[in-house]
Design a protein that fits this description.
Length: about 280
């Protein structure tokens, strides 16, 4: 009697969490501090704040800055991504003028608390001192994890060669991961098939290319989450193309010495969670 081979089905549940917080308005009284708040720039975005300066409505104003810096890490947001314009929506009077500060953030901006001085200069106003403004913005770490297709499924089955002791997935499942910070991917295996015997181990592999396995480990169903992959920030520049935004991960699974286990169909769920790591 020909022995029926076990067939293992996997359904992937992806858990990716990133944090965003609303922009906080900056105070306009002295000292002139403009705080854009904390932002998780998962894509190229701009944020604006309106503020007033004690200059005449007819007075021209020029803004000078060298950009924003994160003191702890030394990372920088260049000056060209911080612009200032007159605010035409706010009524100007002879004692104060309204302006709008706009900052552009990229998904590749590293996490950190950025700040920098900006000087409002009134050219031609004899004896008028420059007005300092302190601009602040917090870049939050973020991470995204998605399947490359809508129904990620791993199928483990034998080939036509019944003498094989190892059965493996027909095709790996591809995941897409993006982050502006170092990251970690963790995995646990859930068992959905009632077993009278002890659950057998699965050989799980995860690689950054379809032909490599950076992680390969025996894992039992029902265990805790285990770290399975690590990496550096994935986004370059504005992340406008997939190659400059995502990193690819490939998951495979196999069963060794399968003839020693009871025949049947076994269903497992692979639970994945991704998080950022402190630099």
């Amino acid at each position: 009697m020909k022995k029926r081979t076990p067939v293992v089905w996997f359904i992937l549940l992806l858990l990716a969490v990133f944090l965003t917080t609303p922009t906080k308005a900056a105070p306009t009284n002295k000292p002139f501090i403009m705080d854009f708040g904390s932002i998780a720039p998962v894509s190229k975005i701009t944020r604006s704040l309106t503020f007033t300066l004690p200059v005449a409505a007819t007075q021209a104003v020029r803004f000078e800055t060298t950009g924003l810096f994160a003191v702890r890490t030394g990372n920088r947001i260049p000056a060209e991504r911080l612009t200032f314009t007159a605010d035409s929506t706010t009524k100007r009077d002879n004692a104060a003028a309204a302006f709008q500060a706009t900052i552009q953030l990229l998904p590749s901006d590293p996490p950190g608390e950025y700040e920098g001085l900006v000087y409002a200069v009134c050219p031609g106003a004899e004896g008028a001192p420059s007005i300092p403004l302190l601009v602040k913005v917090g870049i939050l770490p973020w991470i995204r994890l998605e399947p490359a297709n809508t129904q990620p499924l791993l199928t483990v089955d034998t080939s036509s060669f019944w003498t094989e002791e190892l059965i493996t997935t027909r095709h790996p499942v591809k995941l897409l991961l993006a982050s502006n910070a170092p990251w970690c991917l963790a995995l646990r295996i859930g068992n959905e098939t009632p077993l009278d015997t002890l659950p057998f181990p699965l050989l799980v592999g995860i690689g950054k290319t379809i032909n490599t396995m950076d992680f390969k480990e025996r894992m039992f169903p029902g265990g805790d989450y285990r770290p399975v992959a690590f990496g550096n920030p994935t986004v370059a520049g504005d992340g406008a193309t997939a190659a400059n935004y995502w990193t690819e991960l490939y998951i495979t699974a196999s069963v060794a010495n399968w003839p020693h286990y009871p025949t049947g169909d076994y269903n497992f769920r692979l639970f994945l969670t991704a998080k950022t790591l402190a630099p």
